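Job type: complex structure
Entries:
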Amino acid sequence: MKTYKIIIALFMASLLLLAACGQIAGNNPLGATGGGENGYGILDSSSYEYYNLLANLPQPPVQEEAPTNPAQ
Amino acid sequence: MACMPKRVLFLTILLFFIGASAAPLMATETRVGSMGGVGMYTRDNSNIFYFPGTLYAYKNQVVGELRVQALDNSYSVGVHYPARKQCVIGAYLNRPIRLAPALDEFGIENVTLDQSTDLLYGRQMANFDFGFRLSFGFDSYDDGDTGILKEEESARYIGLAAGISNSVMDLGVQFEMPSAKWEQDTFSIKWGGTALGANGRLFYGGETQIVPVGTFYMASGSVKFTPDPDPTAKVDYSAMNVGVGIGFNRKINEDNLLVMAIELFGMSSYKIEPKDTTNYIDYYNQSILTMPGLYMGVESKIKPWLTGRIGAAQTYQKYTNKTRNYAPEIITETLYESSATVSNFNVSFGLGFHFGDFDIDAAINEGFFFDGPYFLSGENNSMANRLSVTYNF
């Protein structure tokens, strides 16, 4: 009964010790099957680097400003 | 009279603990997230989105996921209701859906496909439980102008998933069909595609279980740009996620659970490729190879009303990026390739509270413990990073 409690306590203590390293590194590991805050790993677009594709896209028409009325 | 507030506080705390019952070990995204991200390797009520057949095992629940503090759009709420004998129906509001690429990468900026509404159905069969999910989401935008300046956007998401589960096996498949459109006069951007996915796992053993896991997801589609009088431009994209791992669930006793897992192979990739001669778009391909990923977590019922969790994740990954930039003034194009091997490590820590029929799971912000509360450190740390609430009825 006591043995498993000691094992659990040591396991938790060692992970808490490692937590300091994790915080310093500031990493958030995401694998294909695990990790991440939702507990299920890489499955969303936020996992990928954002890449600006818009630089060379065809441009839509731009709204021109209406000419100022000289009477005003 | 001065003692009254203290008495009230004392009685409140006392009732708080008396009201706490010996609820079963809790289950939510926050739970598996604070155990190092072992959701695919252990049983949890958040499994229902990957293995729809598990819905029947989590009937009589209302689940709230509060993912990012004070960001209502990141919250979702669902109910699992036993409509008849051997039959459960459910619904989720505002559940995040995970699409790549994001719409604004292609110039569709005023509509989003970030959340879905889900309808769920679960049924107990002779040898397994069956589950089905229908997900949908819609959004639209109209800028209010008239004539050729009128700008309209719309987006639609349909998802279907089905699965079977029993005590030794979970299997789930899913199909997604997202689309979006931007229109202004004769200009248009039309984005759409399909995605297929499958997840499977086995549970071998009794108190100690070996859990082989496999996951597969593939999405492909295209974006068509229609400027006038230029020719139509088309871009293909694809995203893939494949992983194989082995988990180990050790139920030490009624109050303690140890989960360890090794992801033997994981590959996630994302590619954007122009498919016409106008070359408006740069070629881009990113792949992430995980070999291996290590995840572990422990859950321990400290008191009938309190459960402690701690977990860790470490990944060894190779990132490979390939890009080909289009430069109109240069006839030839150059393919750039770069790669980097990195190791990431993180520790997560969580607490679960049981109050009567309510379970609250919290992913604890370790900075709160390192720095201490505000009155000691001056650091404004929130105590929890995310919360999940489950009501069992």
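Summary: The first strand of chain B starts at residue 61 and ends at 66. The two ends of chain B are 40 Å apart (CA to CA).
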